[in-house]
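Backbone-to-sequence.
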């Protein structure tokens, strides 16, 4: 239940459509949502952070993912599943009425910009962003380059792409941690989710400040 859903629910209580006892029960059940015998969802996360708990699809069966999606939908929340295993898409979509796939940036209300085929030719566009997520493997130099071009937060994502002594992304991670660009912060190897989440929170706060 997010802030909008909570307001609607309280309006129903005030209008007498939901009893006080029922409201107390539902709010009391909100913090921990038990899902079968394998998971407990944080039902209050959307109220605290503005974004509901995200389902990590890796190592979960299609049935488990479907059950988690159904529980989040029953709470009136948007659903995001990361690292969806093969064959789980049908279970996830069948658990959500009118289900569809959206990119993470749209889920967090931060429209993405794509197609930066030549960095310098797009420098002006980069400077208009509230925050930038920059992914790089190999030697991991790209976030430092972007950080020197903009006056915005740059969230660097080292990826596990590379040859020889890249050590599965460790070389890129160390290079980004040692960036001389002071506006660059780094997440873990291949952790694009946390980078996108943080960038979306920055964008949301920036939009609120401009209103």
């Amino acid at each position: 239940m997010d802030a909008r859903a909570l307001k609607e629910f309280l309006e129903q209580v005030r209008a007498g459509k939901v009893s006080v006892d029922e409201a107390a029960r539902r709010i009391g059940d909100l913090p921990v949502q038990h899902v079968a015998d394998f998971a407990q969802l944080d039902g209050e996360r959307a109220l605290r952070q503005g974004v509901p708990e995200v389902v990590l699809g890796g190592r979960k069966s299609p049935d488990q993912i479907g059950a988690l999606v159904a529980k989040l939908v029953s709470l009136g929340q948007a659903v995001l599943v990361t690292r969806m295993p093969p064959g789980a898409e049908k279970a996830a979509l069948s658990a959500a009425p009118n289900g569809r796939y959206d990119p993470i940036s749209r889920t967090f209300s931060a429209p993405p910009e794509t197609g930066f085929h030549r960095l310098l030719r797009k420098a002006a566009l980069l400077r208009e962003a509230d925050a930038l997520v920059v992914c790089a493997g190999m030697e991991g130099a790209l976030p430092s380059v972007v950080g020197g071009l903009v006056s915005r937060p740059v969230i660097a994502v080292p990826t596990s792409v590379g040859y020889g002594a890249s050590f599965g992304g460790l070389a890129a991670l160390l290079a980004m941690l040692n960036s001389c660009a002071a506006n660059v912060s780094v997440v873990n190897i291949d952790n694009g989710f946390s980078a996108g989440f943080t960038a979306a929170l920055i964008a949301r706060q920036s939009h609120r400040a401009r209103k």
